[in-house]
Specification:
Distance between the termini: 9 Å
Helix content: over 70%
Order of helices and strands: HHHHH
Shape: elongated
Number of helices: 5
Largest sheet: none
Length: about 110
């Protein structure tokens, strides 16, 4: 798992929200072919996210694992991640710790 893969997971999370909105509009318009296409796209996105989530789940450090989930899967700001983790965390500190950990150990979480 690399930082690029984590950033891709963040983008996919945002894409799923957009796809859900598009699906709702297509359903309202009665465009069943578009609804099916959007479901297909969502399934692909979910598969990619599950793969990355499985790698994140193998991070042994709870602080780093939680930060990765909050930032890249839940799309929280670094400020919100730091607040979620506790008073002693700063946005820059947790970002640097996570990035350092992934650069050092990221490959060991790949399947």
């Amino acid at each position: 798992m690399t930082l690029e893969e984590l950033r891709e997971a963040q983008k996919i999370s945002r894409d799923i929200i957009k796809l859900l909105d598009e699906k709702d509009k297509a359903e309202a318009a009665g465009d069943l072919a578009e609804v099916e296409r959007l479901y297909h796209d969502m399934r692909i996105c979910n598969y990619k996210l599950r793969t990355i989530k499985a790698a994140i789940d193998r991070i042994p450090d709870l602080r780093i694992r939680t930060a990765a989930i909050c930032r890249y899967l839940l799309d929280m700001s670094w400020r919100d991640v730091a607040q979620h983790l506790g008073q002693e965390e700063t946005p820059d500190g947790i970002r640097a710790a996570l990035e350092r950990h992934i650069r050092k150990c990221g490959g060991m979480y790949d399947e």
